[in-house]
Amino acid sequence: MELRVAGAGINLDDEGYLVDPDDWSEGVAEQLAQFENVELSDAHWKIIHFMREYYEQHKIAPDARYIIKILSDDQGYGRKARTRLYELFPYGYAKQTCKIAGMKRPRAWSSG
Question: Which of 5, 27, 38, 111 could pair with 33 in a Cys bridge, judged by C-beta atoms 3.0 to 4.6 Å apart?
Answer without folding.
Answer: 38
